[in-house]
Amino acid sequence: MIVMDWLGNMLKLPKSFMFQGTGGEIIQNTTSEVILVTLIAARDKALDVLGFDNINKLVVYASDQTHSTFAKVCKLAGISPRNIRSIPTTLEAGFSMSPIHFRTVVEADVATGLVSLYLCLNVATTSTTAVDPARPITEEANKHGIWVHVDAAYAGSARICPEFRHHFDGIELVESLSFESLQMAA
């Protein structure tokens, strides 16, 4: 616990992510495992309210730049492939997810009776180093009770440097975060 909070303090993470706050960091082997664990937590929390018979109503979201393991992990967690949303990005936007496009997709799902469950945001994808704007997208997701996870596997440890912390604006609003400290070491 001491070492994990030490790392959290170096990264200037909010107290809600630390043992000395209301959270607590854990170590997984891969970010894919973290996404699976957090997705199952979000799924079970939702199904406790909705009932397990409604699992086919659950919808998950990520940009088209999110690592390909996201869709695989969603299927492992029982999410129907037809309910995995890959939100298109553009070169002009630096391959970042558009908060407006995200809102439009979520509202369309909700209008058809689906339940928006989980959103995976990115801080530096491996293919394009795209960074999704966490604050505006998370604020929208929170209106719908969506669990927000930030996949910062590739560049999360860059948060140690003050000049990169702006990429994490809004991190205090998300439920979970993953990063791999060795990714930036090379």
Major sheet: 5 strands, parallel
Assign the structural class, choosing from mainly alpha, mainly beta, alpha/beta, alpha+beta, or little secondary structure: alpha/beta
- Terminal CA distance reads 27 Å
Task: State the share of residues found in helices, binned by percent.
Answer: 25-40%
Kindly state the number of beta strands: 5
Overall geometry comes to globular
Range of strand content = 5-15%
- pLDDT averaged residue by residue: 88
Could you give the order of the helices and strands? HHEHEHEHEE
Rg over CA atoms, rounded to whole Å, is 16 Å
Strand order of the largest sheet: 2-1-3-4-5
**What's the total helix number?**
5
Mind explaining what this structure looks like?
With 186 residues, the protein is α/β, with parallel strands linked by helices. The chain has 5 helices and 5 strands; from the N terminus they run ααβαβαβαββ. It has a 5-stranded parallel sheet with strand order 2-1-3-4-5, with helices on both faces. α5 (134-143) links the parallel β3 (115-122) and β4. α2 packs across α3 and α4 runs parallel beside α5 (134-143). It is globular. The model has no long low-confidence stretch (mean pLDDT 88).
